[in-house]
Amino acid sequence: MVSLSTLCRYAARKVDYSISLTWKKYNVGQINNTEMIDAAWKIFFQSKLTFMHWNKGGEAMAPIVSTTGGTLLVRKLANLSPMPVFVGDVVLLKDPEKSDDLIVRRLAALEGYEMVSNDEKDEPFVLDKDQCWVLAENQSLKPKEARDSRLFGPVPLSDILGRVIYSLRTAVDHGPVENSRMAMNQDSPVLAVELDVEEMAKNNKV
């Protein structure tokens, strides 16, 4: 049973999401100013704040994602400014090398961070506006194996599709994903209301 305070926090997250997504649609010309209120209400009442994503797995994000794959619950992000993602968050993003694919990686740095290489031959640099640096969870992998920013460099924030908040590896092996403290505070009411482990298990291909 979800408490009233949790439901109120969840409703607040839905309000934030519906306003952000409505404003985004207005800015790209999908709706006009007379349609904004109706669009916001429609999003609030008809949209969920999460979606399920099947990840094929691999060594890069073990143990968050099983090497044989698993189903992830992803928190939707309508707008990446002001920043709804934080250093330490596990995110689902477009594959920089294969535009039709999606990958899961952890945010290691955001715009304004100075990046310093372990290789003295590489010059330090600062991440530009709307850029981020993502890393595989398994840091023992070489860059080519990990396929993270050490290989393909900074990633546009606009390539992030959502924050991974729950991982189901098997029907008996699942749990919340450890993100930044700020993100976990924001996502806790969303998990309480929208998490359906049985439904995730039905969609699991393992």
Automatic annotation (TrEMBL):
UniProt record, GO biological process:
signal peptide processing
Please list the GO terms describing molecular function: serine-type endopeptidase activity
> Source organism's superkingdom?
Eukaryota
UniProt-listed InterPro entries: Mitochondrial_IM_protease (IPR053307), Peptidase_S26 (IPR019533)
Where, by residue number, does the polypeptide cross the bilayer? none
Instruction: Report the protein name in the record.
Output: Peptidase S26 domain-containing protein
Organism of origin is Zizania palustris
Lineage, top ranks? Eukaryota, Viridiplantae, Streptophyta, Embryophyta, Tracheophyta
